[in-house]
Structure formats: C-alpha cells, structure tokens
Design a protein that fits this description.
617 residues, alpha/beta, eight-stranded mixed beta sheet, six-stranded parallel beta sheet, 14 strands, 9% strand, disordered C terminus
Length: 617
C-alpha cells in the first residue's frame, strides 16, 4: 500500500467507529453490522502498512489493533444491552468470551515470544562436542509470526453472528458465536505448548556457550575460516571446506548467521555459528593465529579487530571483475591470490594493497577438476553455459544472461551433435528481475529440447562436476572462467561491449585464450566449429592457465599450507596478544544478546548484510 493512502484510510477508520458507536447507542444491528464489517475489512487493508508512521503513532496512543478490536467488540456489547434482546446471562457470556479471547491471545503472544527466543539461540554448532540440545522440529512459520492475523480471524465469528442478526435472524447465536471465538483463540497457545515444553527442557544458552567454549579450547584451532553473508552466498564458504580439511592444521569455521546452515556443504570441519557480536568478542580462542576471510562484508570487523590474529583475504574465486581488486581488501594483513594475474590486478589498480602483502597460493580447490580427455567416438560435444549474475552495480555488460543468454542457448541447441548444460549463478535475479526471468525462459527451452540436455538449479550438482562432464564452457568474465582453465578445455567469453578483441583480452586476462562472443552473438557458431575441430587456442590456454592459476608444476595445496604457516609465524612474533587470544571480553558498548544485538533473525538483517557485500564474484 502506498504511504499516501494510509492517512485517508485512518480517517475512514475513525469515522466508522463513530458510525458503530451511533448504531450501538440507538440499538440498530444493521448499522453496527455494516460498520463492523467495514472496520474488519479496513483492518485487513491496513495490515500490510502496519509499519507506517501514522499507524505506529496510533499504537503509541493506545489505539493499536488490539485496542481497536476490543473497542468495536465492546460496542457490540453496548448494542446487545441497548436492544434488550438477550438475557443478562447470555450477555455476560458474550462479555466473558470477549475478555477470554484477548486473554488467550495474550497468553499465545507470551508463549510465541518464548518459543521464538529459544529457537533464535545464541549459537549453533556442527561437528563440535557440545551439550546435546537438538531443537525439536520447527512449528509452521505462520504460527510464529501470526498475532494480529489470529485476532482478526477469531473476531470474524462475532462479525458473522451479527450479520445473521442483520439478515433477520435472532440474537440467540451471538452467545455461542462468542464462545466459539474464545475457543478458537485457545487453540493458538495450545498449538505451541508442546514446542515450548520441549524447548524449556533444553540447556540454556549460557550452558551451551560454556560447553562450546570448552570444545574449542580442546580443539585448539590454529586457523579460523570466517564467513558472513546472505543465504545465496553460502557457496563462498562451501568452496573452501575441502581445502581446509586437507590443510593438516586445526581449523574452526566461524559463521555469523543461521539462515544458511541447512545449505552448508557436507564437511568434517568443526563449525561454530555466533550470530551476536558480543558473543564473538567474548569467545576465547587463545590458540588461533590466522583468520581467513572469503568475502568483504561489514561483519568481518568483529574478528579483524583482534590484534593477535593475523588476517588473510582468500576470496571466493579468481576473476577479472573489480571484486578481485576491491579497495576494502587493504584492511587485511595479506591478500592471497592464485597466480601472477592476481598480483598484477592489485598492483595496477593501486587500491592500497602493498605488493609485499600479496601471496601467490594457487587454487587448491581446483584439484577436483579433471584434465581434458578425448571424447569417446560418437559422443556429443557437451557445452556448459554458466553465466555470472547481474552484480550490485548497473553495469549492463556484467552478465550475458539478460541480453544474450537466450540466443546463446538457442544457438547451441540448434547445433547438431551439441549437448547443452545450463547452470545459472546462485545470485541470479538478486538485483535485476530481468535476469531471473531470462534464466527461467532458458530453463524451459533446455527442458523442451529433450532429455539429453540439462538445466542445473539450486546447487543440485557441483559446478566442478559439470566442468568434468563438459567439453567446452560459455560464460562471462568471472571466476568460473578462471577455474575452467584448469581443465585445459576450450572456453568462450562474452564481449558484450563489443570491444576490439585485443583490447578486451588486455582488460580481461582470463579471456586471453577464449573464443569471444560479440554483443549480438557473433563468434559463437564460428568458435564452436573451431573448438570442435583443430582448436587453435589450445597452446595459448596453457599459457593463460599458468598466468592466472600459478605454475602447474607446483602443488597449490602445499603453497596454501606454507602461506598459513608463514602467517601464523608472523602472529607468533607479535608481542601483544589479547582479546580472543587471552582473557577475552568486549571492551566497547555492545547490546546484550537478545536485546537489540545484530542478528539474522531481525527483519531486514539479510538485506543489510548483502548490501555491505559488493564483492560477489
């Protein structure tokens, strides 16, 4: 509802209360029913705008929804009294039922608040030996958010009974209708009683925090892998789990939001989720020396502030996007990149990252990508179309999906002997709905083309698994291109601005050995024929791979492990160690957990977190 309509609706609301009052005083059931029904419908119309300033002022003035409903029910009692159509006993039943309805819904609100607070716990753990505290299955979400809607729903029985009177019936059904209203209101708290009792038996947060604290002290992690972000960004930390498992050093994964816990990749790593800032600042990890960060988000500061913990930005992919040389990266002690291309990006961009702070570690995750092998005779040539998403900016050349995606897929589907795999970026449509719409149409086209083609959505299959299944890649400037170079297979990159080929390759080194696709699709069919034939860019791909991903003769896992050990040694040489690495303790004014502390349970928190993360790749 537009804000300009709220004052008019509130004015109508007040006028209708005047109408209902007049009808009640003169004993007119018709007037009261019409006003009552109009008020009920008007409350439904105002409910979506309940955050409006004027409606909040009404609540402050004790004229919120609960009091408004109680007032109109009280006016129904006045009508019944003035009409003299009910016995005093029946009238007393109606009054008692109205009071019971409000009392029971008050009990429901109290139970609901308890359930929500106990479910929104101060920590969650995976693979950490803490107190057994499995949450019972969550009740329906609508039950945890309902309040005003339940009040209006139960109140409808009284409105309907008065409608019966207005239609010419007797007043007799009003008392049973009021009792039914109270009985329906009683169902709400009863629906949550079992949940509340189960939650009450669980250990409280303080006991769980103490248990987790001891578990982490026993673990003695050297490395903390830190992540904060939106639910659609969880792939950024998932991609590092296998590398951390192979590191051979004690690792703790520290997460800051609950909303993506169900989407974490399977791992043996110990995981601790601390949504509240004060708990992060008070949690002791005296053994930790290295903090690894996969994204530039605002909540990184809660761990970066620890002086005894050396930090390294490891990112979530290597690409030629501006995200790969973001000025925010200068806050870290070191920046770890895959190859020489990564170093040169920061040097050329001059964003405040010193050259001696850049460490080449290769891309250990890419060990899962197989080298190109000859296709079996008669096998189709499989092309993976994996466009990037639209990004946080208005750059029209960020993704090929909107302007060129459907043409690319149509061309591939129309090429004999070609099989199509389609995998959109997890963040597709986050900023621009047109990207989501284009993706939906592409999925439909791929499905319509037959069973041998495949659209992979919602992380149903791992990206690297699709790399291994494909014979070529079509994508945009992104980390997908850089990672695909590990396979040695042909790849295509969209040149949506139509830059001259040499200029585009100079600006985007990852496209140095790519078959380029112009803004109207030119180059795709020709490049596809070359890639399936002599593949004239094969030798060049080996050079670009080394430039982007590092020397293939060196083991990237060993390089990464050496970088961890070197940074840990730097931390050991630092004279002062405090905060998380000593007695701990928050030393700035922070809200107490559960009383305004930043948490993903708060409305809008996910949007706020995403808005601070301009570096998705």
């Amino acid at each position: 509802m537009r804000r300009v309509g709220v004052p008019a609706l509130v004015a109508l609301l007040l006028a209708l209360y005047g109408v209902e009052f007049g009808g009640a005083v003169v004993g007119s059931p018709g007037v009261v029913f019409c006003a009552l029904l109009a008020l009920w419908l008007l409350e439904l119309a105002l409910y979506p705008a309940r955050g409006d300033r004027l409606l909040r002022l009404l609540g402050t003035a004790s004229a919120g929804l609960v009091w408004r409903v109680f007032l109109r029910q009280l006016l129904v009692v006045v009508l019944l009294y003035r009409a003299g159509a009910m016995s005093s006993t029946a009238l007393g039943v109606v009054v008692a039922a109205v009071l019971a309805q409000h009392g029971l819904l008050g009990v429901f609100n109290a139970v609901r608040s308890f359930v929500r607070s106990r479910r929104w716990r101060r920590l969650e753990t995976v693979n950490l030996p803490v107190l057994a505290d499995g949450l019972p299955p969550a009740p329906p979400e609508w039950l945890l958010t309902a309040g005003a809607t339940l009040l209006l729903a139960t109140d409808l029985t009284l409105v309907a009974a008065l409608g019966w009177v207005f239609a010419g019936g007797s007043y007799r059904p009003l008392a049973p209708a009021a009792v039914a209203m109270a009985a329906l209101a009683a169902l709400a708290p009863l629906a949550l009683v079992r949940q509340a009792l189960a939650l009450r038996r669980l250990p409280d947060d303080e006991a769980r925090l103490a248990s987790a604290q001891q578990a982490v002290l026993d673990l003695a992690p050297l490395v903390v892998l830190y992540f904060s972000g939106g639910a659609t960004s969880v792939y950024q930390v998932n991609m590092w789990f296998e590398t951390m498992e192979r590191l051979g050093r004690p690792v703790l994964v520290l997460l800051r939001e609950r909303r993506y816990l169900a989407d974490l990749a399977p791992t043996s790593l110990p995981i601790l989720c601390l949504p509240f800032t004060v708990d992060v600042m008070n949690f002791e990890m005296p053994s930790a020396r290295v903090g690894l960060y996969v994204a530039n988000v605002g909540r990184n500061i809660h761990l970066l502030r620890e002086p005894g913990l050396k930090s390294a930005f490891i990112g979530h992919g290597d690409s030629d996007k501006t995200a790969s040389f973001n000025p925010a990266t200068k806050v870290y002690d070191e920046v770890w990149v895959a190859g020489e291309a990564g170093r040169q990006r920061y040097v050329r961009a001059q964003v405040g990252v010193r050259e001696d702070e850049i460490v080449l570690v290769g891309r250990p995750q890419l060990d899962a990508i197989a080298d190109a092998e000859p296709r079996p005779p008669g096998a189709p040539f499989t092309v993976l179309y994996a466009p990037t998403w639209e990004g946080w900016t208005d750059d029209p050349y960020q993704t090929s999906l909107i302007s060129l995606g459907e043409l690319i897929v149509a061309t591939l589907l129309a090429t004999p002997g070609v099989r199509v795999l389609y995998k959109p970026h997890p963040l597709t449509g986050t900023v621009n709905p047109a990207a989501k719409q284009a993706s939906t149409r592409i999925v439909a086209a791929v499905h319509a083309a037959g069973d041998r083609h495949l659209a992979v959505l919602d992380n149903a299959r791992a990206l690297y698994e699709l790399f291994n299944e494909s014979d070529a890649l079509v994508s945009d400037v992104s980390s997908v291109v850089s990672d695909y170079l590990r396979s040695g297979k042909p790849y295509f990159v969209s040149n949506l601005a139509g830059e001259p080929d040499d200029v585009f390759r100079d600006l985007n080194p990852s496209a140095g050995a790519a078959y380029l696709i112009g803004p109207t699709g030119e180059g795709l069919a020709e490049g596809l024929a070359k890639a399936r034939g002599r593949d004239e860019l094969s030798a060049r791909r080996a050079e670009v791979r080394t430039f982007l991903l590092g020397d293939p003769s060196l083991d990237p896992m060993s390089l990464f492990r050496d970088a961890v050990d070197s940074l840990a040694a730097r931390a050991e040489r630092q004279p002062a160690r405090a905060g998380l690495h000593g007695h701990g303790g928050a030393d700035i004014d922070e809200p107490v957990a559960g009383r305004g502390a930043i948490d993903d349970a708060a409305p809008g928190a996910e949007a706020e977190t995403l808005a601070t993360d301009p570096v998705q790749i």
